[in-house]
Each structure stands twice: as structure tokens, then as C-alpha cells.
Amino acid sequence: MPPDALYERLTVFVGLAVRTAGPGMDPVNEPMIRHWCEAMGDRNPAYRGPDAVAPPTMLQAWTMSGLSGHAGHSPVHDELFALLDGAGCTSVVATDSEQEYLRPLRPGDRITYDVVIESVSERKTTRLGTGYFLTTLMQLRVNGELAGTHRFRILKYAPVAPRSPSVPASAPPGPGPARPLRPRPVINRDNAGFWQGVAGHRLLIQRCQGCARLRFPWLPGCQGCGSPEWDTVAAGGRGTVYSFVVMHHPPFPAFAAIDSGTGPGTGPGIDNGTDDGTDDGTDDGTDDGTDDGTGAPGPYAVALIELAEGVRIVSNVIGVPYDEVRIGMPVELEFLRVDKELELPVFRAAAGPPRRPAVRAPGRPADTREGDDTREGRGPR
Fold first, then answer.
1. Which portions of the chain have biased composition (kind: Pro residues) (predicted)?
2. Which of 12, 23, 189, 241 is the most interior residue, by most CB within 10 Å?
């Protein structure tokens, strides 16, 4: 990489404070907790009553400024952005965030927070453009005690030039530069076990060791009893479509149809997730992925799959045209090798009629929530 004088100037900002001991706009309070829980559909009793605590995921909510904005910021943030804007990095997109919960927040708590520029990446080129990843770290305190941290990362970049009119937007990918890799999942200590399971062709569900409740997606603690202790169970692989949407979007090279025949065990393709790990890879590369939505640019179906174990997962439905996906359709787990480094759990339409056929009431769109009593008593979701 050629010398990057701008990067050297940006690193001067690392460690500088954006905000020190900034006060939250409001104390932790019951009305905001109630509204949050209603919006999220979270009925956990821990968030109600005289001993209520705030949902940990509200952490950042207590620092938000509302429409009036905060006063008392240092000029560090503005100076950093002005430097990037001046270099042509005028666009910004949030990429990911991480939170740690170190102390319960309760109604009446008054928080303060500090924000620092934690890191600046070297110059990176993405499909959006070339720029720099900026990470800020917020630490929230109550009476000086650290209650949690919030790490927030953005990409400040110079957008790529518009596509040449001579290249049709619908032009299929042809010979030329290698297809860019799909975005990688953000793997952290809270979900690393899930992705390790995927690598071994197992879809792992967390099980609370306190109350045996199953949960998915992975979380640090139980939503039922609050226990941080857990183990895992492997999903059997069967489920049904609980709900779904059909995605329409412009073509992205990274999501172009998956190539076939790139070599056994190394190229993209489908592995049946019900195997016992003894797969020798000889079935890879034989599925061209063009008829089932595994790699086609779209339209394709993305569904909320209810597993036989009772939990739900968002994934692709494959093996059937997108306009034939139906709520209640039986599906079976498979693992899609996207490239040499990435596999994803997907669900193939299984033989047999839907378990909960769609019901269309006069004057209303199709809705299968009617007759939903089959979900009663299944256990935690």
C-alpha cells in the first residue's frame, strides 16, 4: 500500500475525548422502559414492578439527545470529520456496534458517559468506496460506577463513481476480476459458538442451564430467568416457514449467482446439514444455485423459520421459486458454501403440504396467524 499521509493525520485523533462526563437527558425511568418493551414485544417480568430493571439493550437510549441535541461536545469529532470531508470522504455508513452490560440500570439512576475515538483503520476500499473505519467507545457510569460500554463503528468514505451508462445494470457477471466476497458476519464472544457450529454443519441453539429455556439468536443471558449459564443443543434440521418476504434489489457482484465446479470440497455449493461431519466434500460444486435462490441476484425469499425445537431463525428458503414460498411450508436445514471461507445455514423446501395453510379472509391479505393454536405449549421461543 502506498504511503497514506491522511491516515497518519487521522491517527492523531485516536484516544482523544469526544465527550467527558456528559449527562443523560433523563434519568432511567419507567415510562421509557415500558415504551421500549412494547416496541420490542419484550414481556420479561424483570422490566416491570417495584424491582424493575431496564432492558440492557436500552443502554444507548439513556445517552441520546433527542431533537434538541447535546451541548458541551469537544471539537474533536467535528475536526476529524472535517479532515475526512476535505479528503473527499463525504459519505458515511454505520457498520456495526458492540455493547457490554456490567451493572443493571434501574429507574432513578442517572447516567453519565464518556466518549473517545478508539481507533482509525488504515485506508480501505469497499464496494461503497474508499475510506476509513472510525470506532468510538462510549462508557456509561452511574455514580462513577461503570455500567456498560458501547462501541460504535462507521465507515467514512469517498463514494465510487456512478456506473457507466454503457454497462447495463442488469448485465450478468462475466469473465474478468474475481467476484468480491460477500460481507462477513460479525463474530464476537457472544456468538462465536454459533459460527463454530455452522463450520461443523450443526445449527446450535442455546439452552439456559437455569430454566432449560431454548433461545435463538444467541444472547449472553436468559430472557426468562436471567441466568448467564448455558449450553447448546443441535437443531434437528426440520422447520416450517413462519413468515417471509421477497427481496428485490439491484445486483451486487458479491451476491451474484454462485459458480459451480470449482473443485470438490473447496468451491461453493450445498452440503446437507444432517450429515455427521464425515462428508468428504465430493458433493460440492454440483449445484449451480440458479434455480433456488442460493446465489441468484433476486428476487428471492427470506423467511422466518420456526424450527421443530420452537425457536425461530431468519434465513433463505431455497429449492423452490420465490413466488411459491408459503407460510407453513415444511423446510429442511442445509448448509450453503458461499466461498472457501464462508458457509451459511439455509432451508430447502421439503416435500409435503404446508402444516398451516394460508387463510385469506374476505377483504384481507393472506394471514396464517389464524388457527395458530398448534404453537401453544411448544415451549419457549
1. 170-180
2. 241
